[in-house]
Amino acid sequence: MINLTPQMAYSGDEITYIGTNNPYLRQFHATFHDFTVVDVKKRSMKMLFVALVAMFPLLAQAQDEIPEKGKEGGTLQLGLRSTASLFSDDGYAGYGVGGQFRLRLGKKLNTEWFADYLFTDFGGAGRRADGHIGWSVMFYPGYHENMKIIPYFLAGHCFDYTKVTPYNSMTQVRTDLAQSRWSSATQAGLGVHWQVSPRFDFSFSGQYMIHLGKDLHYHIEEVNGEKVLLMEDGHGNSMLEGHLLFTLSMNVRIADLW
Question: Which residues contact 89 (CB under 8 A, 6 or more apart)?
C-alpha cells in the first residue's frame, strides 16, 4: 500500500481514507507544503531580482554609449526573462526564470536564443518541471529609428524536457512514480519592446506553443477533500500538447559584431 498523503493511501485501483488526529503531523504537513510550493516561487523571484541588481552597473555604463544610427544589424543583446505558462491541458499555471541573447540580422529582423525553467504545482498533489531551450525569429513590420515602443511578430522552435512527479504525501516525493519525456515544439506570437535607452529595453511577449512528444498519462482527483495526482502507464504514442507562454524580459546591448 502506497501512502499518498497523511490522510489517505493508494493500493491498486482503490484509494482508502486512513486519517490522522496527530496535530504535530498536520502542522508538519502544512509547513512542508509551504516550503516545497511557496518557497520555490519566492526563491525564483529572489534569484531574478539579484540578477537584475547585478546588471545595474552595466546598464549605467551603457547609457553613455549611443550606438551609431542605421547600424541595427549585427547588434548582440544579453537578457534575463521571467516566464508564465497558462491554459495548459492540466489546467494549472507554471512560473519560471531563464536567460536569452539576441543577434540582430537587419533593421527589421532579429533572432532570439533562449533557455528557461518552469515549475508547476498541482495543488499540493505533485509537481511538473519543464525546461525549454530554443530560438525565435522576430520581425518588426513598422520599424523606424527613434521608436520607443516597438511591436513585433515572432515564430520559432524549441526542444523541451518535462518531468511530472507525484507526492506520496506532503512529506515525500515519489520519484519512482515520476514520468518524463523529451519533446519538440513550435511557437508563434506577438511582442513589444520598450526602448528605455539606445542600449537597454524591456520586452513583453505572448506566444502559443505546440509540443509533439510522448504522452504523459496522469490525472488529478479530489478524494475526501484532498487532491491526488494519479500516474498511469502511458500509451507510448506521440501527442500534441499546447499552452500559452508569456515572457517579460530585460535586455542589454553589449556588442556590435558588424
Answer: 241, 242, 243
Comparing 220 with 20, the larger pLDDT belongs to 220
What residue ranges in the chain does DSSP mark as E strands?
2-5, 8-11, 14-17, 75-86, 94-106, 109-121, 126-139, 149-169, 172-173, 179-197, 200-214, 218-223, 226-231, 238-256
Locate the domains of the chain by residue range.
Answer: 2-256
The DSSP secondary-structure symbol of 176 reads G
Residue 14 burial by Cβ neighbours in a 10 Å radius (0-12, 13-18, 19+): exposed
Q: Which amino acid is at 207?
A: Q
* H/E element, 31: helix 23-33
> How many other CB atoms are there within 10 angstroms of residue 49's CB atom?
10
Q: Domain 2-256 is in which class?
A: mainly beta
pLDDT of residue 92: 85
Q: What are the cell numbers at 197?
A: 535607452
| DSSP 3-state of 62 | helix
- Residue 172 pLDDT more than 70? no
Instruction: Give how far the C-alpha of residue 224 lies from the chain's centroid of Cα atoms, to the nearest Å.
Output: 32
Adjacent-strand bridge partners of 203 = 193, 249
In the structure grid, which three cell numbers stand for residue 195, read together?
Answer: 526602448
Q: What pLDDT band is residue 30 in, cutting at 50, 70 and 90?
A: very low
The string over 164-203, giving b where at least 16 C-beta atoms fall within 10 Å of a residue's C-beta and e elsewhere, is bbbbbbbbebbeebbbebebebebebebebeeeebbbbeb
